[in-house]
């Protein structure tokens, strides 16, 4: 499996009572595929997986896989505190015909690199699907270091890694020492640097509501090798990246961004609460400015 392009970790639209709004999810899937995203991810943290049961996560993944119907790859997130839950999610992904799984470190338990590797390999053996690792030490308190990568990287199923550490030295490490593991950008404000170091894909929550703008950066850097245009697009996107990565309300901003596009996203499940009026206005202004600026850059390039 080749990781190429923009992959959207889908939000989970909810009704006011906390139940799934599957009609809204279907509309979002169609909007993203029409916009040209290259893949969809079910069951990531952007989808509020921590607030959902294993059964609910499988229900969502099955719906997304069936609705997508092979038009773009579907990757199913398997992150969970318990290894049996991750195995159940991975086996469910295989049985429903998903294309790959996203495999993170179990949160809270703080495993050693050896323990984390054995956990990943147990999930690998249970499903046999292509695996995209997910390194996010800021959430999991554990890094997928060289001991881990050396061990799991011997599996032919481990084809990529979503790198979300924020440490640019990790980008250098992966590009130089682990070229057989495809590197995917998982830290939005470093997308330009990832592309400069050879990444061909970007797993970005902001593409839930700004797919064309994220695709524009991918095209400029990864497809055209035009890093001058890429820098201008990235400069226009940085205010949004600051809101998402540093604002402390990541999922709330993504869901409100979807609402701004005219689609339903609904509330968050507890413990999260929505944005206040001032936060909504600030995000809406950032989105308006970003869209106008990126449109001018891309139109100017075509002229």
Automatic annotation (TrEMBL):
- Could you confirm whether the keyword Ion transport appears in this record? no
Pfam families attached here? DHDPS (PF00701)
Tree of life domain: Bacteria
Keywords, ordered alphabetically: Lyase, Schiff base
Signal peptide bounds: none
Q: Does the keyword Isomerase apply?
A: no
InterPro entries, sorted: Aldolase_TIM (IPR013785), DapA-like (IPR002220), Schiff_base-form_aldolases_CS (IPR020624)
Q: Which family does it belong to?
A: Belongs to the DapA family.
The protein's name is Dihydrodipicolinate synthase family protein
List the source organism.
Paracoccus sediminis
